[in-house]
């Protein structure tokens, strides 16, 4: 390898490193946004709880003071009524006694004045004087029965009970909440999972109904998430997870979820904390450039956002790969046979690290390939396995799941319609990603990825 080639390889390595660093920056930025969202959620929850406590206790304080004042006024009014009731007969008797006492005192004074008068004058008015000096022949009512001493009973224990009740007023509890618990990267999508975190609490009564319906919304994270207008509903139903596919790779999205129980007349509950997610994985798509041969004849036609490929030109076994190495080691990938054509020996759905060319003809039954043909025969690097899987039919689902055994060996599980075979696949170079591919000889075959 000359210096120019070394420089090219080195620069390509630098570009790949930069790409990985950019993806890491994107993921870290998304995580920071999630932490900030969680912090804001905690602060908002605390602020709302504080307002509830302040408003409740301010209202309770007014009610308690009003109740105390009402009770005090009642007791004072009762005392005044008893006082008035007791004083009324006493006042009447006192007025009568005071009047009679004054009359008798006046009579005494007049008697003393008479004694100082001349006898002739006294005798002249004898009858009138005797009448004035006659003691009052009058009876008075008995002393009225009165309360005399009022007793006010305010038990200290009652006050203590009230104080204790006030000291127990209100409670702060960590109640259950609906939150997004995980965002899982998928090729061209994000799997959003949520859950209701329940905490033991006396607030939960027996027979209570949990959330039965959920609504998931999302928007691009660079929008102002404080506005409800930027969010779009992408799922509404009973499941607690949803695969969001209508997104772009390397773009951060903000998700939120809410729930409700009972029928549709029940209002939706509060939104969860915002959760940001991003996928750096390209979507699973068939390669458009592989659809035509060297003569520019269309061998395959793509539809359904390039997820469905249909063989349209017969008698050609051209391989159709994925647009990129979108399969990540450790995941599962599934193909569905939507339509069938005439079977041929070259019919294969599989995984490859590169094209396999034999006698100038592209095939999926050579080195660096693992696949299963339409008859259920498994091929590993061009070698047929003895164990067979069911043959393809309309609606057949074919799945592959690969895991690393060592640097140059993968353990692959291949299943057709739920019957599975696990095998070891030696490869030339260590890989993290793979192409998926298919090859059919006759027209009419239609396969969808995902």
Write up what this structure looks like.
It is a single chain. The protein is an alpha+beta fold and 450 residues long. The chain folds into three domains: 3-148, no CATH class; 179-200 and 208-279, Immunoglobulin-like; 288-449, Jelly Rolls, CATH 2.60.120. Helices cover 31% and strands 29% of the residues. The chain contains four helices and 23 strands. It has helices at residues 3-115, 119-124, 126-132, 156-167; strands spanning 177-186, 189-197, 213-220, 232-237, 241-244, 253-260, 275-277, 300-303, 308-311, 320-321, 327-328, 332-339, 348-352, 356-358, 361-363, 369-373, 377-380, 383-388, 397-406, 409-416, 419-426, 433-439, 446-449. Strands 8-9-23-12-19-20-21 form a seven-stranded antiparallel sheet, with no helix packed on it. The radius of gyration is 49 Å and the shape is rod-shaped. The two termini are 41 Å apart. The model is unreliable at 199-208 (pLDDT under 50).
Summarize the topology.
Layout: H1 3-115, H2 119-124, H3 126-132, H4 156-167, E1 177-186, E2 189-197, E3 213-220, E4 232-237, E5 241-244, E6 253-260, E7 275-277, E8 300-303, E9 308-311, E10 320-321, E11 327-328, E12 332-339, E13 348-352, E14 356-358, E15 361-363, E16 369-373, E17 377-380, E18 383-388, E19 397-406, E20 409-416, E21 419-426, E22 433-439, E23 446-449
Antiparallel strand pairs: 1-2, 2-5, 3-4, 3-6, 6-7, 8-9, 9-23, 10-22, 11-22, 12-19, 12-23, 13-16, 13-22, 14-15, 16-17, 17-18, 19-20, 20-21
Keywords: Receptor
Protein name: Cytokine receptor-like factor 3
InterPro entries: FN3_dom, FN3_sf, Ig-like_fold
């Amino acid at each position: 390898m000359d210096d120019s080639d070394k420089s090219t390889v080195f620069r390509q390595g630098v570009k790949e490193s930069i790409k990985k660093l950019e993806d890491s920056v994107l993921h870290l930025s998304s995580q920071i946004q999630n932490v900030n969202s969680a912090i804001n959620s905690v602060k908002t929850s605390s602020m709302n709880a504080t307002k509830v406590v302040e408003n409740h206790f301010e209202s309770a304080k007014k009610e308690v003071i009003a109740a105390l004042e009402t009770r005090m006024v009642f007791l004072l009014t009762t005392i005044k009524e008893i006082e008035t009731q007791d004083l009324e007969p006493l006042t009447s008797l006192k007025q009568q006694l005071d009047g009679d006492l004054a009359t008798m005192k006046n009579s005494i004074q007049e008697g003393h004045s008479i004694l100082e008068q001349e006898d002739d004058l006294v005798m002249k008015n004898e009858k009138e004087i005797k009448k004035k000096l006659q003691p009052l022949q009058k009876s008075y009512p008995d002393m009225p029965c009165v309360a005399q001493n009022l007793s006010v009973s305010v038990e200290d224990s009652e006050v203590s009970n009230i104080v204790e009740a006030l000291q127990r007023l209100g409670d702060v509890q960590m109640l259950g909440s609906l939150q997004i618990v995980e965002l899982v990267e998928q090729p061209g999508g994000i799997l959003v999972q949520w859950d209701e975190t329940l905490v033991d609490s006396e607030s939960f009564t027996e027979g209570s109904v949990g959330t039965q319906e959920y609504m998931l919304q999302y928007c691009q994270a660079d929008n102002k998430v404080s506005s409800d207008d930027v969010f779009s509903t992408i799922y509404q139903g009973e499941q607690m997870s949803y695969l969001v596919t209508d997104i772009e790779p390397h773009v951060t999205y903000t998700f939120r979820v809410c729930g409700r129980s009972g029928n549709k007349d029940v209002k939706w509950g509060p939104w969860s904390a915002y959760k940001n997610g991003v996928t750096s994985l390209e979507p699973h798509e068939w390669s458009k450039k592989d659809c035509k041969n060297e003569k520019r004849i269309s061998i395959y036609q793509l539809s359904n956002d390039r997820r469905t490929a249909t063989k349209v030109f017969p008698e050609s076994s051209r391989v159709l790969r994925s647009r990129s190495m979108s399969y990540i080691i450790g995941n599962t990938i599934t193909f569905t046979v939507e339509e069938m054509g005439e079977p041929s020996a070259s019919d294969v759905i599989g995984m490859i690290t590169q094209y396999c060319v034999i006698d100038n003809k592209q095939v999926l039954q050579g080195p660096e390939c693992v696949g299963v043909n339409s008859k259920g025969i498994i091929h590993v690097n061009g070698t047929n396995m003895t164990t067979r899987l069911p043959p393809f039919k309309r609606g057949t689902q074919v799945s592959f799941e690969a895991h690393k055994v060592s640097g140059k060996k993968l353990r692959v599980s291949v299943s057709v319609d739920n019957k599975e075979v696990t095998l070891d696949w030696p490869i030339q170079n260590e890989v993290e990603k793979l192409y998926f591919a298919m090859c059919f000889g006759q027209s009419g075959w239609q396969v969808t990825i995902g």
